[in-house]
Amino acid sequence: MSKFFHTCHFTSIHCRILSTQTLSKSLPLLLAPSPSRFSLSNPLSLHSPPTSYRHRNLSIRAFDSDAQKDEPSAEKEKDPDSDKPEGDEGSVVKPKKKVKRKEKYPSGEFVFEEFSAWKKLVVKLRMLIAFPWQRVRKGSVLTMNLRGQVSDQLKSRFSSELSLPQICENFIKAAYDPRISGIYLHIETLNCGWGKVEEIRRHVLDFKKSGKFIVGYVPVCGEKEYYLACACEELYFPPSAYFALNGLTVQASFLGGVLENVGVEPQVERIGKYKSAGDQLIRKNMSEENCEMLTSLLDNIYGNWLDKVSHTTGKEREHIESFINEGVYQVEKLKEDGWITNIMYDDEVMSKLKERLKIQEDKKLPVVDYRRYSRVRKWTLGLSGGKDKIAVIRASGSISRVRGSFSVSSSGIVAEQFIEKIRRIRESKRYKAAIIRIDSPGGDALASDLMWREIRLLAASKPVIASMGDVAASGGYYMAMGTGAIVAENLTLTGSIGVVTGKFNLGKLYAKIGFNKEIISRGRFAELTAAEQRPFRPDEAKLFAAAAKNSYKQFRDKAAFSRAMTVDKMEEVAQGRVWTGKDAASRGLVDAIGGFSLAVAIAKQKASIPQDRQVTLVEMSTPSPSLPEILSGIGSSVVGVDRTLKGLLEDLTSSNGIQARMDGIMFQQLEGASFASPFLNLIKDYLSSL
Fold first, then answer.
1. Which of residues 127 and 205 earns the better pLDDT score?
2. Rounded CA gap, 455 and 423, in Å?
3. For the chain, how big is the Rg over CA atoms in Å?
4. What's the domain of life for this entry (predicted)?
5. Who is most buried in 8, 173, 554, 561, counting CB within 10 A?
6. Contact 243, 513 (CB under 8 A)
7. Is the dihedral of CA 169, 172, 176, 177 positive or negative?
8. CB contact set of 608 (below 8 Å; sequence gap of 6+)
């Protein structure tokens, strides 16, 4: 969502997208007698010892001006940040073309191996000495309720929010835990992206390799929920289940007419034909380029859904499409056509599980829930203890350079804290490699660039792998491109290398409401962003456009350097376009398709660690319970309002830096509303508390 700042600097260029939700947050500020401008980001929303590891065989010093002075050979690797001759817009300093070798990566596929008799004995002894809260009754069924938000961060036991790494770890632990007989999944509306859903689905399929049962129960079902649920061994719906398997949509909103009616003239400088964020402000309908991009994304997501469901259920793809197009609304039809196992209530499914485990009817089914089972340590089950350590940094949310006054401890990516972790890993000899898990639409471009630099410095000393979640675009991709290899899910939204910037001319609006503003200035361009009561002068417009082009050039050229591409080749895949992980891989923006386990396998390969050897994953940030998380056990709706208010205030008081951001507002039906307007979240939380 675009921000309207009370204090503006010329260097403040945002790359982000505007939606209808944005208007609700921005219009009140349009009436402010202080400078107003908008800034936008992305549309919508082989192998050598670690000590000599070089990221893509490219010198870190290529971006160090001092190094270039000291080393004559540095001229061979040009700095993408070097200035081109003034007035020569066509000349671009291109990095020397590199021959990019296609590495053969391990599959990272989960292989279930039975423990030896000795290891089974060790596990039993460890279970006996485990703390009481880590003990589980033999023959228990692990129950997990999957609904709502799914965070990519580790969560404390006080948090009510689901944690993707803890969900995945529970699946792995349950597969090997002799006390767990199977898993019972409750699946309802998921408010997360397809990347996280794909990761969970992969762990469901991996768990089935253990030979234990996994049963799904889905009272509320859409395409995303069924995509996950159909991977279960058995699937049950209640008779009155809410389900809607009608297909997927993508939508775009345009504010050109609205702004025109209120007397606001957006003056947009768009770099990249797919940078549709500017279109949303100045157009009243969808451009051909925007339509092309959104259609491609939708086709990728829908096609993947059809293929995976077809493979899991054994149905022909054409049959699935035909079934959806019939407009089915009766649960009985789902059973008749074999989409579900049976129609049962929850208590009936529980009774069926007792029969399966040969438990008497009058006895209670032994269960252990997700939160309690998360306390069981992997060490107890013999799943940890490797001497080789790999550091893991989780980077989720919007990117900022410093922490805001109103931000909570678990919110967003703060560059100064992230850099501190990177430096600790670089200076330590404990870690053989590092994995950066990214789930971010971007944010402050200066912060992104500073983190990119530190990641490259780390990659010069040891292997660094990027693992992408739902989205790693704009600033999120900026971070990833500094690593030695990038792993993404099929439907991760990534790329978005582009810039849109501009300001609002509020002259007509001021005239309508009788407001006047006069400015006394010194300096030819002092009023560049301060004078929102008039349009740009020709010389101001020229300078503004040149600054936007320069910002885009820096981003694009560093991407080309990092990915060992020529600038011309990178230009073909940049221009602000958002790609799915699959398409990004085919265009050289991503190295491999898979989840976090694949990132670990690649890190082991690059660090010369045998694939069959256990490693210890060291989380660089451990969850600490915050007051809102503790209170969430008392009233989640109240905490939701508190968290939303803090996020809103942080947005409105953030610093004016260059932004490289993608807000996923186009894919609310596809991705959930993880990055939706705080105002809409506030309204939702308030209504839910009534």
1. 205
2. 9
3. 26
4. Eukaryota
5. 561
6. no
7. positive
8. 47, 48, 49, 50
Catalytic residue among 474, 562, 597, 632: 474
SS3 letters across 510-558:
HHHHCCCCCCCCCCCCCCCCCCCCCCCCHHHHHHHHHHHHHHHHHHHHH
Mean pLDDT of 47-67: 38
> Looking at beta carbons, which pairs linking 667-671 to residues 24 or more positions away fall under 8 Å?
667/44, 667/45, 667/193, 667/250, 667/297, 667/493, 669/248, 669/249, 669/250, 669/251, 670/193, 670/194, 670/248, 670/250, 670/298, 670/301, 671/45, 671/192, 671/193, 671/194, 671/470, 671/471, 671/493
Could you read off the pLDDT of 174-208 as tens digits, one per residue? Answer: 999 999 999 999 999 999 999 999 999 999 999 99
**Is pLDDT above 80 for 221?**
yes
DSSP string, 155-178: --TT--SEEHHHHHHHHHHHHH-T
% of the chain beyond a pLDDT of 90: 45
659 falls in which pLDDT band (50, 70, 90)? low
Question: Cβ distance 272 to 575 under 8 Å?
Answer: yes
Residue 612 burial by Cβ neighbours in a 10 Å radius (0-12, 13-18, 19+): exposed
Compute the mean pLDDT over every residue in the chain, rounded to the nearest whole number: 78
- Interatomic CA distance for residues 291 and 283, integer angstroms: 13
Single-letter amino acid, residue 690: L
Identify whether the C-beta of residue 448 lies closer than 8 Å to the C-beta of residue 479.
yes
Say if CB 273 and CB 289 are below 8 A apart.
Answer: yes
Cross-strand bridge partners of residue 499: 271
Question: Would you call 474 a catalytic residue per the annotation?
Answer: yes
How far apart CA 140 and CA 613 sit, in angstroms, is 30
pTM: 0.78
Please give the Cα distance from 295 to 572 (Å, whole number): 18
